[in-house]
């Protein structure tokens, strides 16, 4: 009997030890949150446009997907490359460079750290460890142009770009073609500010355009564009937001905004990382068809039913590829 009791006690002890071991291995198997680092574009947080949209995408991913993230701004690091290296050294699973101006720094850093995965937004790289996301900004800008062309009373409209680079020329090209598609008589005035972070300069450019009778102005100029919105409202003309819905910045002037869904793109990247542990697509381009660009709700200056139908028709044609914008 004693022998049986001893064997029973030994069995219980073995089961207990086995259970502890199982719980320990189970605990160690719990996945750590995916870590994402982002180097923000030169205007940084508070640009009420591109950087803020990218940051919002990561905040949503943190709240809904349980990722962790950190960020750097050039005002703190002094250079893009230093900020990117800091994020690599933190052990982030993916390091994001937000903006075309990050191209050179991303390439240099990616060569130094070939085992790190990088994501470049708004430009492309051929390096094996750099994935890219670009947008068809010309498609969303075309729709903005259609609205301006339909609604202008003076037959003069304006475009304000930040830095004169191919990316911003895509905005200008789409906008101009959209205007001309519905109203060939309209004159489009274009000015490039040379910066994305000077709202006072944006205000002055808008003033100059208004003197030339522009009654609708479309800025693709980051924080410089916010100055355009403010001046448009002050002067009683109409304008458009860009990248995110900027209606709240000038509620008497912003008719709609060209939505460039950087927040959605970054959130989807985070979702894929959580699900698969890696990025599958090397190069991704997002247009109207892919829900990467669009226009925000139209306010301030409502469209007539006929104008609404026309805008929808152009949107469908862009999505289906029957309208091709030559860049």
TrEMBL record:
Segments forming domain ABC transporter substrate-binding protein PnrA-like: 39-316
UniProt-listed InterPro entries: BMP_lipoprotein, Peripla_BP_I, PnrA-like
Key words of the record: Cell membrane, Lipoprotein, Membrane, Signal
Chief subcellular location: membrane
Compartment(s): Cell membrane
Signal peptide: 1-21
Topology relative to the membrane: Lipid-anchor
Family assignment from sequence similarity: Belongs to the BMP lipoprotein family.
Stated name of the protein: Basic membrane protein A
Source organism of the structure: Peribacillus deserti
């Amino acid at each position: 009997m004693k022998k049986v009791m001893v064997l029973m006690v030994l069995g219980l002890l073995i089961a207990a030890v086995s259970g502890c071991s199982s719980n320990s291995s189970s605990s160690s198997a719990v996945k750590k949150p995916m870590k994402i680092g982002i180097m923000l574009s030169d205007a940084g947080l508070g640009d009420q446009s591109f950087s803020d949209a990218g940051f919002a995408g990561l905040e949503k991913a943190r709240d809904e997907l349980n990722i962790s993230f950190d960020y750097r701004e050039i005002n703190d690091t002094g250079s893009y490359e230093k900020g990117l290296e800091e994020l690599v050294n933190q052990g982030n699973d993916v390091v994001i460079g937000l903006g075309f101006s990050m191209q050179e720094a991303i390439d240099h850093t990616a060569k130094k750290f070939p085992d790190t995965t990088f994501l470049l937004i708004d430009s492309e790289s051929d390096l094996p460890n750099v994935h890219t996301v670009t947008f068809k900004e010309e498609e969303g800008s075309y729709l903005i142009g259609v609205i301006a062309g339909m609604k202008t009373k003076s037959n003069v409209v304006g475009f304000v770009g930040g830095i004169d680079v191919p990316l911003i020329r895509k905005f200008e090209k789409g906008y101009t073609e959209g205007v001309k598609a519905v109203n060939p008589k309209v004159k489009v005035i274009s000015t490039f500010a040379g910066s994305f972070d000077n709202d006072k300069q944006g205000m002055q450019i808008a003033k100059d355009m208004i003197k030339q009778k522009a009654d609708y102005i479309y800025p693709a100029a980051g924080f410089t564009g916010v100055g355009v919105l403010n001046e448009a409202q002050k002067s009683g003309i109409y304008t458009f937001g860009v990248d995110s819905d900027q209606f709240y910045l000038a509620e008497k002037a912003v008719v709609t905004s060209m939505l460039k869904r950087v927040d959605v793109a970054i959130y989807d990247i985070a979702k894929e990382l959580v699900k698969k542990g890696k990025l599958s697509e090397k190069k991704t381009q997002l247009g109207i068809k892919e829900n990467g660009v669009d226009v925000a709700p139209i306010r301030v200056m409502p469209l007539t039913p006929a104008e609404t139908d026309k805008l929808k028709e152009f949107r469908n044609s862009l999505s289906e590829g029957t309208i091709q914008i030559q860049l």
